Amino acid sequence: MVRTYRPKQPVKTQCALCGNTFIRKRVDATFCGATCRQRAKRVRSNKRQNVTDNCPAPTGGTTIRQIDRSAADHLITRIHYARRWPPVSFIFGLFVGETLEGVVTYGRPATQSARDAVLGPDHAGEVWELNRLVLRSNRPNDATRLISRSLKLMRSIVGDFTCVTFADPRQGHRGGIYHAASFIPLGWSARRREYRIRRQTRHSFSILGEFRGQPDRYEQLRAKYGDRLRLIDRPRKRRFVKLAGSKTYRRSRAKLLGL
User: Fold this and answer.
1) How far apart are CA 121 and CA 115, in angstroms?
2) What digits encode the pLDDT tens for the residues 63-115?
3) Could you give the count of Cα atoms lying within 13 Å of 91 in the half-sphere of its Cβ?
4) Which of 87, 112, 170, 177 could disulfide-link 107, Cβ–Cβ 3.0 to 4.6 Å?
5) Bridge partners, 50 (sequence order)
6) What local confidence, expressed as pLDDT, does residue 1 receive?
7) Where are the domains positioned within the chain?
């Protein structure tokens, strides 16, 4: 039996989307043309998408919204491997129902040299760092959904910007999540040394900040901590960049990145 897709006689029918009458070219035609077919596809996709901006979610659905520091403290200080807060300006949480399942934070890179290294000194003010990403259950696609939606919320607050983030190979992180979120790999972080204190997780900038502005702060640190104070080579991390902005912005900043 030969299967046929064309009707034997011209058949008029009504488009399932716009309601206009059209002549079927196939026996299974539902829409009057490609435009309605694509629009219907987008409608179906939007119905499946549960992530909304600060809107109540149905039972079991997910929402992503801005939260305060106290709500995210447990995930940052107890679950994330660093066990400490970085410099943070914006915090976004992923909720399943009313349960906080994930957190992503954004802040300025810690040093001026780190800000300048991305787009150059003239555009250092556009650079923000994704400096914490932690999930409680790590369900499939939650990390990518949290990053992508939080970047859109960030853009609505600060305007067009460039996001930089790092993946630490020592923790088994290769940056697969950032690849999935369309980040651009840009090699490795710079080589440098930093101070650490044995049996503490404090950042080097926090340690040096104890005697900031004093000319002999290194001697004072050595006197306070003795042999516990160490100067070590900082492990290098994989660096990723995301251009979050209009097409014109992305095109111009991609040239600065040499892309």
Assistant:
1) 8
2) 999 999 999 999 999 999 888 898 899 999 999 988 999 999 999 998 888 88
3) 19
4) 87
5) none
6) 44
7) 12-48, 62-190+237-256, 193-233
Instruction: Give the pair of three-digit tokens for residue 152.
Output: 């859109």
CATH number, domain 62-190+237-256: 3.40.630.30
How large is the C-alpha radius of gyration of the chain? 25
Q: What is the DSSP letter of 77?
A: I
Q: What is the largest CA-CA distance in the chain?
A: 96
| Pick from 197, 185, 187, 191: nearest CA to 231 | 197
What integer pLDDT is reported at residue 47 of this predicted model? 58
pLDDT tens digits along 11-69: 788 888 777 888 887 777 888 888 888 888 877 776 555 444 444 443 357 899 999 99
Handedness of CA 189, 87, 93, 49 (dihedral sign): negative
Distance of CA 37 to the CA centre of its chain: 32
